[in-house]
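Protein modeling request. Please complete all fields; requests missing the sequence field cannot be processed.
Requester role: graduate student
Desired output: 3D structure, token encoding
Chains: 1
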Amino acid sequence: MPRLGTVTTRVLAVLAVSWLGAAGLTACSAGAKPPADPVKHTPSAAPSVRHALVLQATTAPWRLPAPISREVVLADGGSLLVSGGLRPDGLSSAAVFSGAARHVTDLASPTHDAGGAVLSGRDVVFGGGSATSLPTVQAFTPGTPGTVIGHLPQPRSDLVSATMGGVAYVAGGFDGVAMTRTVLATTDGRTFSPVANLPVPVRYTAIAAAGNVLWLFGGERAGAPVDVIQRVDVSAHRAVVAGHLPAPLGEATAVVLDGRIYIAGGVTASGRATSRVLAFDPAAVSAHRVASLPTPVADAGGAVLGGTGLGGTAYLVGGETPGTTAAVTQLRLVSVTLAPQAAPRPAFTGQLLIADRGNNRLVLVDAGRHVLWTYPSKFKPPPPGGFYFPDDAFFIRHGTGIISNQEDNHTIVEIAFPSGKVLWQYGHPLVPGSRAGYLNQPDDAFLLKNGKVVVADAMNCRILFISPHRRPAGQIGTTGSCVHDPPRALGYPNGDTPLANGDLLISEIHGSWVSEYTPSGRVVWTVHLPIAYPSDPQQIGPDAYLVADYATPGGLYEFTRTGRILWRYRFASAEDAGPPQPRRAASRRLHLRQRRLSPPGCDHQSAYQPDRLAVRVDRPPGHRPKSAQHSRWVRPAAPRRRHADPSADRLSPAARSTG
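Delivered output (659 residues):
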């Protein structure tokens, strides 16, 4: 098709209809029957039943006896022990509760934002804060008052702790003056040894243990959440920044279920609590959202009952929402049955003919992405003058031949299939012109039932009919008159799709017009469309037409003869990195693929019969498409020999350089 300046992003012309039968992309003349399909497709397998583990976050059926946050929660046997914390009145608590109901003992001194572990059967609380940061290490058992059993090397509040192999590790925190880097290890709560120094000192971080590694997620620094993921190898005594969370996060809680690490709740950069639950992948050092808590919460205590395997349940106890809460959230991995999924259907049946103009070749592929045939090749030489820039290709003559137009070579060629023997050629290679025997940027060459070839001779601003004897046999439009002035002149035509009634559907770039003409040149209807660059219009219903907008960012439009837009599909912008979002249901594509016209000159019982789309690929030189799938929605590089200024397309052909 004629080409604009630097069209770097667009929906390609997935509209060049190759009138095909069951064999795939096979255009036909009178009485044409496509060849038998040599590719056999196995029946789709029966849908398989699939199961998956899904994290389920629900409100627990029990609550704390009173609201609390920033507490230490330990799993002691089959129960949760909730110790210390910050009360709604802003004071630290010394109470220890067993789950929802029973007050079992008190700590030796109130504390909040402390760490905790179970060491040698005793429940131990490390540091924390009250009026100031505390260095004390307290131990308790249910029914026995808590006692101070040791001291940290320095005061430390806002810390976290985790246990591996009977060793408790203390990380992060604040000493009353500055944040602390040193990660400490202890087996008894009395003697501490340094393990490593955090590269990023943080407070209010979340911690989880896996193997010989401690993972620290986010936290706060200078009063704001951070997104760092820090890895502490306790065997190698080394700590590094291993990655980053999707967003800054502090005051979250990390738990381990079935060997998987989850990071729940916390405070975001906005200062608000979040309900997000992230799953962490240690191999990729990345986290992604997998669930939502019933209520946003931060500063909750966390522990797992029933073991960290599949049968375990993690609990988020209390916390701030932002007010202090008594609610408890439980996290479980549950097995769910996914909807049956049938084997994927092939992208198409039969074979797909690709006009790979950027690589100067034709390619025939099947749905399995196998290349079945190429032209030219070692044993199928190109025609005299070369085979350059084939923009379109269609099967003809019962599938025994192919017609293709080479825009920048200014030629049309018919070759035998599969031998590649040149049967017919029109135009002078690399020599544009308007006299008999010459073309100037031919687009969409079709073989009609009467044996003539019709082509949009774009730069000559005419639709040209060519006899089998290579002589001009009529035209629509006036050569060199490139304005929309029906029926006398056409404004740079780039499409001439044959219709079932024998007429032609013609698109004009200048002015963005689509019109139906009879072969004698009478205008049936003409309509201006609110798009930049109409290309390859196709009829898809009694009064429904589909056209591509071959511009930046491009789109697809369904319209009526009066110009009413029925549906559109387009990118939001040229820089849109994601897949295009349809204005209506995405199933529209499938609907359109199942609903199209039979070609003129083909035997048909009805005006509308299913056939196939031929897909035009637009690739930079040197790129080899791997499959037909690559020919649909792509963001190609700027094609060769285009004008740098898209506005150049509005100039007359005489004012434009063809390179």
